[in-house]
Amino acid sequence: GNSVTQMEGPVTLSEEAFLTINCTYTATGYPSLFWYVQYPGEGLQLLLKATKADDKGSNKGFEATYRKETTSFHLEKGSVQVSDSAVYFCALSAVTGANSKLTFGKGITLSVRP
Amino acid sequence: EPEVTQTPSHQVTQMGQEVILRCVPISNHLYFYWYRQILGQKVEFLVSFYNNEISEKSEIFDDQFSVERPDGSNFTLKIRSTKLEDSAMYFCASSVGGRLMNTEAFFGQGTRLTVV
Known about the structure:
Structural class of chain B: mainly beta
Strand content of chain A: over 45%
Number of helices of chain A: 0
Distance between the termini of chain B: 37 Å
Helix content of chain B: under 10%
Mean pLDDT of chain A: 92
Distance between the termini of chain A: 41 Å
Order of helices and strands of chain A: EEEEEEEEEEEE
Low-confidence stretches of chain B: none
Largest sheet of chain A: 6 strands, mixed
Helix content of chain A: under 10%
Radius of gyration of chain A: 14 Å
Strand content of chain B: over 45%
Low-confidence stretches of chain A: none
Oligomer: heterodimer
Shape of chain B: globular
């Protein structure tokens, strides 16, 4: 079946540090890949997505590249801000078969210090 | 900006009781979902709902669970005879379309259910 594995957290960084959050996946078919973010007291929000191999999703300074050869979708940001403190979830949706659901990882909490 | 709203934000219930978790999806959305996250574990898919019927459900979604769209705006998850292991954060979501490569699922802020 489909699954998503995220690196263990939490992660604490100083403002302006470089961020990498690892995500790998296992899927049948050709999944679409997503990063969702949950700010304190809010729902999950789509941060970025990629729908095919070598696609790069980007938003708010965050980037992730769909790597089929390594089955990865690592999230990166060159310079984090305090306002980026949140929980980050990697997810996939299979293109074939059950396309109506997301398979999530555990999520990782990012805290950014001033 | 339109948003998915869930009530209550936190519900405490006694084991064996029935609970109803409520969600108001975005008004022009056609697909509705429930997910849950047990503390420290992954967010898990429970069920998807379209055209007034369940389109897919996970093995977690057994006879203890049911969903309903009682009117044109609410989408509810009912858990009969709650168990301790039902304690989790429950997320409602909705989307315009069903293929998530082409559309976005919007999530509510979650209801934290605690079964004591």
